[in-house]
Write a structure and sequence with these properties.
Radius of gyration of chain A: 22 Å
Strand order of the largest sheet of chain B: 1-2
Largest sheet of chain B: 2 strands, antiparallel
Largest interface: A-B, 34 and 38 residues
Shape of chain A: globular
Oligomer: heterodimer
Structural class of chain B: mainly alpha
Number of strands of chain B: 2
Largest sheet of chain A: 5 strands, parallel
CATH architecture of the largest domain in chain A: 3-Layer(aba) Sandwich
Distance between the termini of chain B: 45 Å
Number of strands of chain A: 14
Number of domains of chain A: 2
Number of helices of chain A: 13
CATH superfamily of the largest domain in chain A: Response regulator
Strand content of chain B: under 5%
Helix content of chain B: over 70%
Chain lengths: ~425, ~290
């Protein structure tokens, strides 16, 4: 049988007419839309995300013995054991495609919630469409600070945003100073697109508030053929901490040029991005013993919370990779949304929203180093503590905050 | 913070980088001078050379210094084939010849990038160990990285060789004659297709040499050629279209101006200096510093 466009429209119209009744009846299936870049330049992130969501789906729909909401028993008990079904949509990193695909997910696939999107710029349009249709949107892995400040009622973000990440670095500096480490001057080194600029601005503001002196604030052209002039200025400033916000290419060139020009900072505290990429450590890892980067996830947590290791194994089975900063947040995104739908006992957008507002999951029942999941009036979880990781002996070790740390920071580096 | 040491260091780094820019750009100038065609895939030639060096290192543990001649030879063949299979037909276009040439090499660039992304993945590679990689000579507080020093030496040698080749050999004279008047040389029995193919080969071999040297200190990924190609076009335009010596001087100038600009302006604006100098040259001497038209 072939399904014509008219059939789809008719079916959609019928479903729309019946939707209010259907949502009151016990749904045997709960449909959630997952929107990511599955093609284009960031396709790899979408492919990895899909595996993370499928792992979470398996944990929810199957019976697993984890201290995680909905892991035990099959499906959603609040909806009579209904199973979740995921519908994947491809936004290709384009905000306009994100808008169109979200409309399709809501009007044709009848999803009751949407999760996405990797790119912050796409999260902007996707969340607007969701708001219009009153369908809850969960921002699993977007980190732009402005996203939750747009007065949207259906926007929720369980993970940290970039200002929280930068604040964690300065909390760490304050803690190190209390222990007697000399940290007075900082050198900011950031690329000139929105990521580096926002990060540099947040860091400069925090430095001012907490009384650190900025010895150098270098904004550089991304993908520069040479960084020797920039590194030379960093060397001349010789700050106590070097804080790069760089993508992989510039990160590699920065570290190589530093070695060539004989500049060895006391400490490097990086804003994720290139400094959490395997390619960078493959290229220049030998020069980076002791580098510190921020993140939202650490596999170290498995030592304190064995479930983290088991879930990582489930994910690795599907993807061949360990959970990382992004995939861990994506996994938790579906868990948090499913937990709310389960408590709402309904697939109605307003009811799910009310349940999300009342979400309160203790940190121990997540795979993250978070204190808990609880949204403020703007839909942001302010208890999603980021972690700082230090690269020691070829792997990352959690050194901050104390409740997640498994080792003290090595300072100065090597 | 402007001490004598930082100024000297900047100039030294700029000079080394500039010689390398010259070496990257000279192939472009050679091809343009020969047949008035701008190769928009020049950056992708560089990218292929870097990948070739990387794979020779990865599979045969061959140091970039040893693989440089092999990569140059491979690029020579590649350049000649590109001429024979693509450019030869593009220049024959009866209408809009200029546009056809631009789009044929531009299209080639996009295809090469796409193929690299497909076969080599968009991952960032680098040659992790090489004889010179990461080593530095320091003289009175001035640091000179050995890979770049080697690059500068190779650039000077390549320009010397090229000068000798063009002015002192039969083939060099044939090259010059073909460039002067492609129709007339046919009368004395020179096959212009053969000369053009060899010119493309030579131009590609030079950028191949640059790619092998750069693989020692630069990361490698499918888009790596883009920023260097842009600098090459400016270098060639500054030095004078088609002038081999102009590319050499243009490269050094670009390297120095870039370094000095970064001393006085915020580093994100460091290419502003290059374009300012370029505009100045356009106003005063539109054919470029060493261009002869």
């Amino acid at each position: 049988m072939t399904i014509s466009r008219r059939d789809v429209l008719l079916g959609g119209a019928a479903a729309a007419a019946l939707a209010p009744i259907a949502s009151r009846a016990e749904a045997s299936e709960v449909v959630i839309g997952i929107i990511y870049p599955f093609s284009g330049a960031s396709a790899q992130q979408g492919v990895d995300a899909r595996k993370a969501y499928e792992t979470a789906l398996d944990v929810i729909n199957g019976d697993h013995d984890f201290e995680l909401p909905l892991a035990k028993g099959e499906g959603l008990p609040g909806l009579g054991g209904a199973k979740i079904r995921l519908v994947f949509a491809d936004h290709q990193g384009d905000p306009q495609k994100g808008r169109g695909e979200t409309e399709r997910l809501i009007t044709q696939d009848k999803v009751c919630a949407v999760i996405g999107t990797y790119h912050s710029a796409v999260a902007v349009t996707v969340s607007q469409v969701c708001e219009r249709y009153q369908v809850p949107f969960l921002s699993a892995d977007n980190s732009s600070p402005s996203l939750h400040r747009r007065g949207l009622k259906f926007y929720f973000r369980p993970a940290a945003h970039d200002e929280m990440f930068s604040a964690a670095m300065f909390d760490f500096f304050d803690a190190m100073k209390k222990k007697g480490t000399k940290i007075e001057t900082l050198a900011l080194f950031h690329e000139d697109t929105i990521f580096g600029t926002d990060s540099g601005n947040a860091q400069a503001k925090l430095a001012g508030e907490r009384g650190y002196k900025i010895a150098a604030d270098i904004k550089y052209r991304n993908n520069s053929p040479s960084l020797s002039a920039e590194v030379q200025q960093l060397k001349a400033a010789n700050a106590d901490v070097l804080m790069p916000s760089s993508y992989t290419t510039d990160g590699i060139l920065l570290v190589k040029t530093m070695a060539e020009l004989g500049y060895k900072p006391n400490a490097i505290v990086a804003q994720d991005a290139g400094f959490s990429e395997k390619a960078l450590y493959d290229a220049v890892g030998d020069k980076l013993e002791g580098v510190i980067s921020r993140g939202s996830f650490s596999l170290d947590l498995a030592a304190k919370r064995p479930m983290v290791g088991k879930i990582n194994a489930l994910f690795k089975e599907r993807s061949g990779k360990d959970l990382n900063d992004l995939t861990s947040r994506e996994f938790m995104g579906l868990i948090v949304m499913a937990d709310a739908i389960n408590r709402a006992k309904s697939t109605d957008g307003d009811k799910i929203r009310e349940a999300l507002v009342l979400t309160d999951i203790p940190g121990e029942q997540t795979i993250m180093p978070w204190k808990r999941v609880k949204f403020d009036e703007m839909g942001q979880n302010n208890d999603a503590d980021p972690v700082l990781l230090q690269y020691v002996g070829g792997k990352f070790v959690t050194i901050f905050p104390p409740q997640a740390a498994i080792a003290d920071a090595i300072w100065p580096m090597k | 913070m402007l001490t004598a040491e930082t100024i000297i260091q900047s100039l030294a780094s700029g000079l080394l980088m500039g010689l390398l820019y010259g070496l990257i750009a000279v192939g472009l100038a050679l091809i343009f001078g020969l047949m008035d065609v701008v190769n928009f895939a020049h950056g992708e030639f560089l990218m292929i050379a870097m990948y070739a060096t990387f794979f020779l290192f990865g599979f045969f543990a061959l140091d970039p210094l040893l693989s440089a001649p092999l990569v140059a030879a491979a690029l020579f063949v590649f350049g000649a084939v590109v001429y024979l299979l693509i450019v030869r037909f593009a220049v024959r276009a009866k209408a809009n010849a200029g546009m056809v040439q631009i789009f044929s090499t531009f299209g080639l660039a996009i295809v090469m990038r796409g193929l690299a992304q497909f076969f080599f993945t968009p991952d960032y590679r680098s040659v992790t160990h090489s004889w010179l990689g990461g080593k530095t000579v320091s003289v009175a507080g001035i640091f000179l990285p050995q890979p770049q020093l080697m690059g500068a030496a190779v650039a000077i040698a390549a320009f010397g060789g090229l000068y000798f080749f063009i002015n002192r050999t039969d083939f060099g004279r044939a090259l010059e004659a073909t460039r002067e008047d492609a129709g007339a040389v046919a009368l004395v029995g020179i096959d212009k297709n053969r000369v053009f193919a060899l010119g493309w080969g030579l131009g590609a071999a030079l950028v191949g040499l640059a790619g092998a040297i750069m693989a020692m200190f630069f990361y490698i990924y499918p888009d790596v050629g883009a920023s260097f190609a842009l600098i090459s076009y400016v270098t060639v335009a500054l030095g004078g279209f088609g002038s081999v010596f102009g590319a050499f001087a243009g490269g050094i100038l670009v390297g120095l101006v870039e370094a000095v600009t970064a001393l006085v302006l915020p580093p994100s604006l460091k290419s502003v200096g290059i374009y300012a100098v370029y505009l100045l040259v356009v106003f005063i001497r539109p054919r470029g510093l060493f261009g002869s038209m």
